[in-house]
Amino acid sequence: MKNFKLLTISLTFAALFLSVPLFSQVISIDRLFCENRENPLGIENINPKLTWVLSSDGRNKKQSAYQVQVSENPDNFTENLIWDSKKVKSGQSVHVAYQGDELNALDKYYWRVKVWDENNKSSGWSNTAFWQMGVLDRSDWKAKWIGVGYEEEQSRPGGLMRNEFNIDKKIRSATAIITSHGLYQAFLNGSKIGDAYLTPGWTSYNKRLQYQVYDVTGQLKPGKNAVGAILGDGWYRGPLTWGERKDLFGSELALLLQINVTYADGTTEVFSTNNQWKSAKSSILNSEIYNGETIDARKIKTGWNTSDYDAGEWVKVKEKQYGYDNLVATYNEPVRKQETFKPVKMLTTPEGDKVLDFGQNLVGFVEVEITGKAGDSLVLEHAEVLDKDGNFYTENLRAAKQKNVYILSGRDNEKFEPHFTWQGFRYVRLKGNVPGISADNFTAVALYSDMRKTGTFKTSDKLLNQLQHNIQWGQRGNFLDVPTDCPQRDERLGWTGDAQVFSKTAAFNMHVDNFFTKWMQDVAADQLQNGSVTHVVPNVLGPGGAGSAGWADVATIIPWDMYLLYGNTEILKNQYESMKGWVNYMNEQSKDYLWNSGFHYGDWLFYRPDDDNDGRAALTDKYLIAQCFFAHSTQLLVNTAEVLGKDEDVKKYSSLLHKIKEAFLKEYMTPNGRLVSSSQTAYVLALNFDMFPENLREQAAERLVNNIKSYGYHLTTGFLGTPYLCFVLSEFGYHDLAYTLLMQQTYPSWLYPVTAGATTIWERWDGRKPDGTFQTPGMNSFNHYAYGAIGDWMYRELAGINSSEKINEVGYKKIVLKPHLDNKYESEEVEKQNKNSVLDEVNASLETYYGTIVSHWEIDGERKTFDIKIPVNTTAEIHLPSNSIAKIKENNKPLSSSKDIKIVDEKPDEIVISVGSGHYNFSMN
């Protein structure tokens, strides 16, 4: 009887346990995004786009309807409702446009959503999120532009500005809106406003100057309040490019700041910059992006940003008439402090220098906590590498000093960090006369745009994992408000070619939708009237620096990438005229549709070291490259016109594309399909951009393969050929060769820098040569992300994570999982380099607007397992490498018995299936 009772209890619990999924399968709402950010401040779009991420433990879960409510009061969605979408029968959960009452400048709005699943079961209301509007009209600006009132020194010390105001009533909310000419850090009652750095960011200032919006409700107090700001040169007037060129956007620092206060009784008041503010020189003696910052703590005006401070000796500011026409809200994520590092060692070099090694090449600065006598100084010099003898190496920095100097005040426990500069470094050389210095006094802080981390990629191979690490840190170091080419030498510019080749890889590692949307607006703003696109954006090289194939094509490539990867049709709409302008420019430069004129960088920095500057040593004809990109950009314009419903443009540019390809064949290909340049890049670009007739594509791929083998299974490509190389090989059935190239450890290869100790991606394939010496120092960055574009192939081919490219399926609405589980070496030598190891596991994930995709495969002897997760409200097409359905099991059951899986196609080497959301585990023998 006792056993019977236990059995009854066990069965009861089992029944309860089995019933749990019935409840957990209800869809829940995890995250809410407005304009792709969580609770953003400063939205100028009067119909902001709303997105919600769904989750459920069940399979084949999808949204059948939604309801959005927007209110002015988070506690009352009834009386204060300004939009109720009602129940909308739609599966759309991404980029749903607000369609309610007119929105007011700087007001905060609260929203929530509920959805119904495929069985019409409701999720219930989500948590409440919010957004705050930005400045919507010039009349919303009450602040006046102000500049320092004192006579500036030639060394241009940082400027201080301050004012005081009174709060006499209880506050409901307060918002600060701030921008500047130069960089600023603002303070309210002694505390920094916000946690962003290098504000207002870098844009084409004279056309687009960003302002930032902050909630400062908690920083105000009853009675007297003090507000102030420190200003520095930054990109606005500091030296940029080469030859100490200054004042590229203007010569005077200026501040525009206002605080809008709403009181509990509903009344409002604005406190803003005007001619009553005062100014003084700061303790920052000078500050430049390339050269670093010098701070004299003896000159710190203690308490200058508090209400108790006596500013009697300060001088009145000067009002400026700069206007508001170029002011725009900040759309992308700001630069913030990120990871921190303590020194892994403090060493003394053979030359006697005291050097800190932080173990990671990073971008940011070093925080210092020290005690010493007044007038003692500490000098921090920054470098990426030590030379072959172990000495501090800065020759590759060119003219950039990368030096921060701190002069002590004599107080205990002084803390220093720079305000308006950053460095690219792993090593820091210490100079000065502060006694008792140890590694404990220093902390390195990474700085980069605060984008959400979205992708993970880990394998059974340590070198590949380090390569992925290097790709990610190359991106972190160079995605600092603009996609810079390098973070250390006297350059750090938004090179368009580097950005376009890396944009897809970037989107796997981080959420770059807003980052590129913002930057592409500057690409359009700086585009020349004839449609030519500049080499760098913001353009600090002048009108002569424009029109290079593969660089200027950023105008078409990145908008299209952002559409495919995020479903972002807005960027296509916003950039369409810019895209057309670039294609039209190329067409106007061509003769009989052949573009063989003008300056081009070509296949920049391919494996030959004598290819600096003018690229004369290039293996690949630059005009052949130009014609390929002419066709590619035209194709992307046709695609975009189709998405946007511009039928006339589809016809017009489709006709142009046909003529461009005909001109290519006539000029660059023999009747038998041989190209005039027999390089890897020539065949890669021509194949990837579909320049060959269909009947000649296979033999062109064979020529590419033979070329790679003739170089001992090495690549020879540069910036433009490298991103597509492995994709072309995989597409044409040479995946094992692509894998062999990836795993090659000798120069030139992706893993050669890894074996040499790299912690970021190098600018050159052999930045450090096998004998320990360096490549030419004039162009030898050790943090330069372009060659990290292989990450796109690693995610899409090894892990197999792809989005459908069909309209209404982009942005991972439909997922295509097609991993390569069997990766074999084409070269015994490369296999031996890797100690005959086999890649037997890849585990990757990607956070999308629909949720997180997981693709995890593993090989154990003859058994292969493929574990995947598909987000709610999406579908997936899965390619399983097997020649028989009978050999495949899902969750240890025959594949054919699963009601959740539809078999789409049976091929000799793979089974194609279709699934909805859920967790699936496949095993194949």
Automatic annotation (TrEMBL):
Residues 348-447 form the Alpha-L-rhamnosidase concanavalin-like domain. The keyword Hydrolase applies. One of its GO terms (molecular function) is alpha-L-rhamnosidase activity. Residues 452-797 form the Alpha-L-rhamnosidase six-hairpin glycosidase domain. The keyword Nucleotide-binding does not apply. Residues 169-338 form the Bacterial alpha-L-rhamnosidase N-terminal domain. GO terms for biological process: carbohydrate metabolic process. It catalyses: Hydrolysis of terminal non-reducing alpha-L-rhamnose residues in alpha-L-rhamnosides. Residues 810-892 form the Alpha-L-rhamnosidase C-terminal domain. Keywords: Hydrolase. It comes from the Bacteria. Its EC number is 3.2.1.40. It is an enzyme of class 3 (hydrolase). PANTHER family: ALPHA-RHAMNOSIDASE (EUROFUNG) (PTHR33307), ALPHA-RHAMNOSIDASE (EUROFUNG)-RELATED (PTHR33307:SF6). This is alpha-L-rhamnosidase. It comes from Sinomicrobium weinanense. The lineage of its organism: Bacteria, Pseudomonadati, Bacteroidota, Flavobacteriia, Flavobacteriales.
